[in-house]
Amino acid sequence: MSYWYIAHNDELLLDLDDYMRPTKNGCPWGEAFFRRRLRNAMAAGKLNVREVWLVNSMSDHHYHAFIRLKKEMSKFSPKYGAERRRLGPENIERLVWQLHLGSDLYRGRADLMRLARGIYGPSLLIHKEMIPGFYRAPDAACSCKEKHDTVKQFELGESACKTWKYYRGQTPWELFGPSRKEAERFIPLPTGRVPLELIMKVEVEK
Q1: Range of the domain at 27
Q2: pTM higher than 0.85 for the full model?
């Protein structure tokens, strides 16, 4: 089984990859970009946190963090009226906080693009098991036992996981365009006006 947790308005959901890799000064990445930034935001009164959960993800040395807030994000800014809240500033605010606190950059960019396109549940985390003692139930579940690889799911077409199709039915290249996997030679760019043909140039590494 796979259990899907969709971000609620009083939650931040972070995907913390390679949590223990060292930063330039040797401090673990998770310590510098997650705990310290969260601590500083709380100390400054920018985030009113009720509780924090750190949970192993499906990959080794990777973690998911759930930050439960005391108030919904939309209520942090009293100047926002009902119309502004209806347009979703709390979603933008949540996604920016998640990036600031160290969540995976690609996931964060994809979440922002999904929000810009009005796709429901732009931010979510998936677990193989229900989180023991967690404060709420998952929002959805599916029978999949393996990680939902976007490319593989897309290739399955109508046989793809229905839950995946509902919440995540877009490929990376539909969001940002395809990326080349082959090794390429470095092409330096000049300062000043950069010729577009230089941007588009591909030289395969031999």
Answers
A1: 2-129+137-199
A2: no
